[in-house]
Structure formats: structure tokens, C-alpha cells
Input
Amino acid sequence: MLVIQPGTSLKGLRKIEPQNAFASHPQFKTTAKGLLAAGPVGAILHENRVVLLPLVHMPRQAAMLTRRANTGITPLPEEISSALQDAMVVHDIAAAHRILGAFFDKAALGVNTGISKNVDFPAVKPTVLARSRPGEAAVVFEALLSERLDRALEQHPEIKTVTLGNIRVLTTLGPSSFDLSLGEALEKMLTRLGQKQARPRTFKRIAREYALSILSQAVDREGYVREDRIISSHLLLGEALSKSNEENAMKAALDPSGISLKQILALWKDVQEESGREDSQFLYPVRLGRDSSAKAAARALGIGKRAGLSSKGEQAVADFMAAGDGPGDLFQPVAKQLKAPGIKNLFFFQGSGDDWATNILVVVDDKGQAWGFEMGYTQ
Output
């Protein structure tokens, strides 16, 4: 990281990356020049953009970074750049704390950042890893639609042009098998085109643009797509978003000592398939802050008030398996993995209502992450 003092010319920095102006965060409406006027800032080259972080209110970090300053902006290690997510100019000090906090927390986790592990960094809020930018989910939607449309056309080679009248036939894959998600997407895309029919290649050509037009209208303040605004109203797009979120989470998450999260997820999907329970899900890893208590883990995973803490440790696993609407002995292969040294704590949460019940096993690992498994029923 390069520390830039007030009065530094921005022209030299722009010459390093002439094709990219300084990024600006829409929430803060600040400029690089205005930011420099407030005091020294740290600069990182990330994803072909210059990231500026104010250091004036963080003297210890500023002094440390100044000692390590070099004569140019150097790329951040891949492990750390993934924590930053996207380049931005940060004017808000709280936001800077969150970003720098995650940066220093990585060092505390043992990642080789070249930064002392004894840094007194700010408390870090939990970071959700299962989330996607509109562009990421749009790419997945494009591939998913192409794959599903090709499968439908193989079943119905007589259909050369998709119309509002033959979509039902096209998406019928067997005597009692229908691809409702694909059918809905094709109908909405035809509506968007303002046409009653289109060739299959047309849908593939406009898929990404179509997805972006919807996803970009459903983002939170940080620019990530909100699932609650997509899942219920756009079936295939919701599937694509879920898949993109899963890919991002598993890519960003760190494997606990002695365990593979990808293997855990694969084993859990086997449990879901064999149990036949639709009301089940994997709670994707969330990077915790300093607080790794049961309450903090539950809050980070979005459990909320729908379930309360029932047991801890090995008993939590046993209770999850024995629950009336739990996985039973099908969970044994996963349970064996949870004996790895990287598993620091286990919490069992349970909740129920007049027409629903849920059982949740939460795992806290040695990489400062919380993740888990949920299974229950809804009438």
C-alpha cells in the first residue's frame, strides 16, 4: 500500500492507470481531490482501480502503512483483494473502518499480508460471503437459460420458433415434468421484446442484458443483489442468483483446519436428496468479527428470532440428528467431518410454530467463520 500525503499530485497516479479514473462511491459523492484535502490516505491498486482509504482518524494504521510505503502502487495479494470486493473511494470513516478492519482481520487469521498480527484494528462487522453483483448473477443466468433451453429443444426438435402459444409444450419434459422456471423466463423475455415469437438464439443473445436490467434494480446500498427482491418474482433468475451466491461464498470462504467446505457442501446435498426434505438449506459461510459467540453467529447467519439456542458442542450435533424433522443418521458422514480440529464450536438452534418447525446446526471454525445446516418442515 502507498500512503499519499496531502498536496500530492493526482496526475502521477492517473498515469499509472490512465484508462481508469478514480472510483467514487455514490453514497458519499466525494472526489479524490477532496479526500486528500482531509489528510493522508492509503492507496491500493485493486481490479484496475485505485482505492483510497482515509487514514487521518487511524493514526496507528497510518504510521504502520507509512513505514511500509513504497514508490508506487502495488497490487494487493489475492487473499486480501477478495475481502475488498470492489474498488471505491471511501469518504465515510465508518466504511473505511469496515474495509481496513477486514484487511487487518485477514492478517490475524494468518494470511501472509506482510502486516503485523498485533495491529489494534477496529471491530469488524460480519461479512456475508454468499452474495453477488448484478453482473455476476447475469452471467450465470445466461449460461443457465442456454443450457435449459437447449435441453427443452432436444425434447421438442419440431419447435424452431418460440411463441407464447408453444412455450407450455416446449417446457414439458415428461409426462409430469415441466420446466416452469424456463417457461416463465421465456414469456417475460418475449414481453420485454414486445414480440409474440422469437428464435431460440434471440433469447440466448439478450439473456445477459435482460438479467442485468432486472438485477440492477434490486441491489442493496453496497451494490449486491437482494435475494428477497428476485427469488419470488423471477424463478430462473432466482436460481441463477442462488447459484452465483453459492459460487462466490465457496470461493471466498477459507477451509477450516482438516476440513474441506466444498466436501461438506457436497455431503450435505446428498443428505438433502436422500431425505427428500425440501425445507432444508446450507447456511453459507459468514466471516465473523471478533465476537464468535452463539448469539453473534446466529445473528450473522440471519437466524433471527425463528429459533433459540438449545445445546452446544457434540450434543448439538446429536440433537440436530435426533430432531423429529432433522436428518437422522443420514447426517453421519457430515458429523464425522465436524470432528476436525478446525471446528471450534457447534450450536443447535430449534424453533417451531403452528404449521412449521426448524432445526439449525451452526458451526464456528478456526478461520473466524460461521456456517451451518437447516432442516425442518412447513405445511
Summary: The longest strand covers residues 343-352.
